Amino acid sequence: MATLTLDHVTFLGSGLRRPECVACTAAGAIWVSHALPDGGGGGVARLAADGSVQPLLARTGMPGDFMPNGWSMAPDGSFLIANLGESGGAWRLRPDGGCDPVLTEVDGQRLPSVNFVHRAEDGTVWISVSTWRAPRDRAFHRDVADGFVIRMADAGDPASARIVADGLGYANEVKVDPSGAWLYANETMARRISRWKLTAGGLGPRETVAEYVDGVFPDGFEFDAEGGIWCASVLSNRVVRVAPDGSQTVIIEDCDPLEVETGMRNWRDGTFTRADMNVGAARRLRNIASITFGGPDLKTAYLGSLAGDSLATFRSPVAGAAPPHWKF
Fold it and tell me: Residues of the chain with pLDDT > 70: what percent?
């Protein structure tokens, strides 16, 4: 597969704030995370074909430090959103701007900052929490592994939530694969993607799908129609495709090799900090954090980012797999 260059990248929209998570539908809608400038609220925004931004902000019911991170669409038009603020929890943003708690504690413990909420095709909700530590920077260490995944059988029933996987090295995006048989998760500080077989009781044992090549600090990912996994890497602004046989191809990148090597060295010796994580913010791709596929043929890739004000987009040589919300 040919590696693309930045000449293949265009940008859509303007005025977005922390567009970390992106999702598309068959009807042509492009939805993206959208935070308020003071960090005290936000929601999502819809991008029209001409790039105009139509925000849907949480107006009532949300916690004071609400910061939208990874989210998922629900069939009723609401959004299930991870609150990255320290008050934590998963929340439902309704089309009228009202915000309701989906899950604020599990196993009797209050949830800290939540990273991602994924609604699978069967309606099961999967929630990833990167770490119990606050601030989260205390978990930017290869030897810290207290991230976990929650399975919630019914988004309307907090009592159905259980921790089903733990000991993860900064759990990030988590998704059920197109076959419906496996749950996958990126582990940012462990620098790997893991999977678990879905069972009647929850999950089977963890399996390592791939340990990422040097310079990749995985954040979001998406499946393609040929069984591949596309990963967005913070710091290095790399998009990497993991083929079904486990081989990896860097599709595109936007980084300074010396800065990437410094980040790798600091990760290895335990001195990695947020400053290392943020070096990609000064580049054109603005610290990419997620990837999704859209367009009529599912071959238009969109990249969410931590520091951008628009979405980077390019044409993919491989179509994406239709996500659970594709027909919403």
Answer: 99
Query: What gap in Å lies between CA 74 and CA 78, rounded to an integer?
Result: 5
Half-sphere exposure of 207 (CA within 13 A, CB side): 11
- For residue 247, give every residue at least 6 positions away whose Cβ sits within 8 Å of its Cβ, in sequence order, or none: none
Cβ-based neighbours of 26, under 8 Å, separated by 6 or more: 322, 326, 327
Q: pLDDT for 191-237, tens place per residue? A: 999 999 999 878 999 999 999 999 999 999 999 999 999 999 999 99
CB of 144 closer than 8 Å to CB of 132: no
Which phi and psi (to 5°) does residue 274 adopt? -60, -30
Annotate 191-231 with DSSP letters as a single string. Answer: TEEEEEEEETTEE---EEEEEPPTT-EEEEEEEBTTS-EEE
pTM comes to 0.97
pLDDT digits (tens, 9 = 90+) for 133-173: 999 999 999 999 999 999 999 888 999 999 999 999 999 99
Contact criterion met (CB below 8 Å) for 240 and 248: yes
Cis upstream peptide for 135 (omega within 30°): yes
Enter the tokens of residue 77.
């038009």
